Amino acid sequence: MSERLQQLITEFTLDHVRADILSAVYECVSISSAPAERLPGGASKFGGVADLPAETAYPSFNGTPLSFIGQINLTEVSALRLKHNPLPMSGMLSFFYYNSDEVSVYGEPEHRDGWRVLYTDDTSGMSAQGAASYPERRMLFKKAEKLEFLYFEQDEDDQKFEKLMDQLDNRLDHQLLGIPMSIQGEVFEETAEHIDGKPVLLFQVDTDNKLDMMWGDMGMLYYVIGARALASKRFEKTWFSMQCY
């Protein structure tokens, strides 16, 4: 992104805020999907049936099993060799959400059991559990750079920056790490009072027709954990937000 961004800063006459813009570039993992083609157990995937240890109880909310969103094999993420990767180098993260017309789970404390992130250190003894809520598709990971949306003192600079952003591949999509692509309020600000330490984006899940996933009106799911909880692998402390248009 760097060379292209430098050119756009010049093109939109934003040289006086060049340093601010360049400092807002962040590294993340962009996630897409592909047909499953008989995925082996323990592979990273969206949908299908969760791979869990036999001793792990399938998560539920108000007596109803949560929908399995996907699982990330952290060995695949480690292989990307990110500049900064605070996640464990191996193991599995499994993501769940209560997607129901009866109760809307947006991340309120009273719905705390409406989302869940499970971490499995040893993936050798995992087996399929639960039922599929969404079609199974393989996850594809790509190291990416994106630009955080900024606001400036001058309205003219804001307008120019919006045009600059339109020229970049800065789309909303499935994402791991980096900064959430918020739709309404800032996700990290929303979750700040519920987490311990600097926020880390564990998973951003976009509305996706290929996965039959629709969150409200073309919305997104965000799973956020505090850095201190992450360092001690306390993934049960993950907080959540759902935003839509």
From TrEMBL:
Coiled-coil regions, chain positions: none
Superkingdom, natural source: Bacteria
InterPro entries reported in the protein's UniProt record: DUF1963, YwqG-like_sf
Entry-linked PANTHER family: SLL5081 PROTEIN (PTHR36436:SF6)
Record protein name field: DUF1963 domain-containing protein
